[in-house]
Amino acid sequence: MCAAFISDLPAVGSDGYDGVYQVLESHPQYTRIKIIIPEIQISPLEHNGTIYQRILLSGFGGTREVGKPEVPQSIQLVGISSTGSFEIKLLSTVEEELPVDLLYPAQPSPKRLPDGTTEQLPFAIDQDFYRIDTWYPAQPATAQEAAILREYRVLPVAICPVQYNPARRIIKIIKEMEIEVYQISPYGVNEKSDHVLYESSRYRNIYDSFI
Fold first, then answer.
1. What's the gap between Cα 33 and its chain centre?
2. Domains of the chain and any CATH numbers
3. 22-81, pLDDT tens digit by residue?
4. pLDDT at 176 (0 to 100)
5. Angle, vertex CA 147, rays to CA 145 and CA 150, nearest 5
6. 110 by DSSP, 3-state: which?
7. Do the Cβ atoms of 13 and 159 come closer than 8 Å?
8. Which tens digit of pLDDT belongs to each residue from 171-188?
9. Residue 90 and residue 105: Cα distance in Å, rounded?
């Protein structure tokens, strides 16, 4: 058995996900999904006299590699079978490139002090990385380690629909993408020994919000 898609595929976070997903094909060996991404917003942000650009996308958080460009990221939870290892493959995209000035770098989380207050850490930027001619992130969709969400086993998938080339100062905006979830091994991490699904009605709304 390959991936089983239980319900909608919203973003994990406090905001709603305004995009749309559609299961195109579902087979024992693989499942293919189409994801439509909402429109981005670009907002200027000033720091110490330098004007940066920040990309905002409804329902998405941001990448967290401190000092590197911050681009929208959302973690989607995909229901998978009780055993096995799974991977994803990017099949196709609808995209466009757009010139943009310096992107704001991801910043460290504030430091929590013993008295319960927080202290903002110094501004961080990886100057060497901002001179590299490469797309960041390298892939717009990547699979993470399988996890257990009560009765379900899920595969977190990181979706990054905006890639940035810091040396050329352009962004690649992915408006639509098709991905394939497929099994690469009969053995995996965080497997469920009980293959029979007993769904708790108490958590039905939670499942519908995340899977």
1. 15
2. 20-210 (2.60.40.3800)
3. 888 887 678 899 999 999 999 999 999 999 999 999 989 999 999 999 999 999 888 888
4. 96
5. 175
6. coil
7. no
8. 999 999 999 999 999 888
9. 26
The string over 112-138, giving b where at least 16 C-beta atoms fall within 10 Å of a residue's C-beta and e elsewhere, is eeeeeeeeeeeeebbeebbeeeebbbe
Assess contact for 31 and 20: CB atoms under 8 A.
no
Q: How many CA atoms lie within 13 A of 47 on its CB side?
A: 14
Under 8 Å between Cβ of 94 and 203: no
Provide the pairing of β-strand 147-149 with 141-143: unpaired
Q: For residues 40 and 175, give the distance between their C-alpha atoms in angstroms, rounded to a whole number.
A: 9
Biggest CA–CA distance in the chain, Å, is 60
Contacts of 133 (CB under 8 A, 6+ apart): 165, 167, 168
Peptide bond just before 186 cis, omega within 30 deg = no
Are 169 and 157 in contact, with CB atoms under 8 Å apart?
A: no
Residue type, 115: D
